[in-house]
Amino acid sequence: MVLDVSSRTYKRKDRWLVSDLERRLSLNLPDLILSDLKRKDLILRKNILRASNFSQSQIESSLVELEKDGKIFLTENLVTDREKWKEVLNGIIKEVEKTHQKSPFRIGLKSAELSGKLKADENLLAEAIKYLVRDGKIVQQEAYLRLSSHQPRLSQEQTSLSRKILEKFAAHPLSPPTKEEILDEDSNYEDVLMFLIQGGKLIELKDGILFRKEDFEKIKSKVVDFIKKNGQATVSQLREHLSTTRKYMVPILEKLDQLGVTEREGDKRILLNR
């Protein structure tokens, strides 16, 4: 009798395997589902026991019963073991909490970093994040995850540094210092810069170019107005119009392309939504 249709190989010393195969020998549908989930973090709902003799309606009925019994967790498309699900949920919250404790000035943990911290399938992590967001336990803010109760904050000393940094940008709104130049001046600025960027007070462009948000918005308006008036514009034309240099103008236009404001056609820019 075939007890496992998968091609995966196992060691005789795997104690859980003996128990698992004994469970399969009973041909009890709920136990077969649980044994499948023992092997994987999650399974597509449509793929549960796909090679078995059980009908889809029988499998679905057992899935619903197992969820009622608290043994599995179901989404519209996925199935996972309930204990594994709890482990992943708790793991995400724990990692976000650790980030808040270590770096209270940061928005939170980059969601992309989770897969390296938790040994779990990426699809399972994605589902768990959605669940925690819906449940109000965490907030997804762009690429970051934070606890709903967390608000990034600076120390008194860092607050003073942030004012100094913003003053440097205010003094040169069209040709501000680059990220590298700021950090070369004082390495203590690094955490504060991160706070200002993540908080949206500074806009980061390519090659470490930074602008205060209000300055970038003014630049965007000037670019849009110029192209509306002329139909299109080259980098040189916009550079002259804004009285800045190519060093800044190219990253500005690439950012506007990325934001869907402008679009490149050859060596010219046009407005995307004319």
Quick recap:
The chain has four domains: 15-71, no CATH class; 84-147, Orthogonal Bundle (Arc Repressor Mutant, subunit A); 156-209, Arc Repressor Mutant, subunit A (Orthogonal Bundle), CATH 1.10.10; 214-271, Arc Repressor Mutant, subunit A (Orthogonal Bundle), CATH 1.10.10. Helices cover 53% and strands 13% of the residues. The protein has helices at 15-25, 29-39, 56-68, 82-102, 114-117, 122-134, 156-171, 179-185, 189-198, 213-230, 235-242, 246-258, and strands spanning 42-44, 72-74, 78-81, 109-110, 138-141, 144-147, 202-204, 210-212, 233-234, 262-265, 268-271.
Task: Report on this structure.
- The protein is α+β, with helices and mostly antiparallel strands.
- It has four domains: about 15-70, no CATH class; about 85-145, Winged helix-like DNA-binding domain superfamily/Winged helix DNA-binding domain (Arc Repressor Mutant, subunit A); about 155-210, Orthogonal Bundle (Arc Repressor Mutant, subunit A), CATH 1.10.10; about 215-270, Arc Repressor Mutant, subunit A, CATH 1.10.10.
- It has twelve helices and eleven strands.
- The protein is elongated and about 75 Å long.
- The chain starts with 14 loop residues before the first helix and ends with a strand.
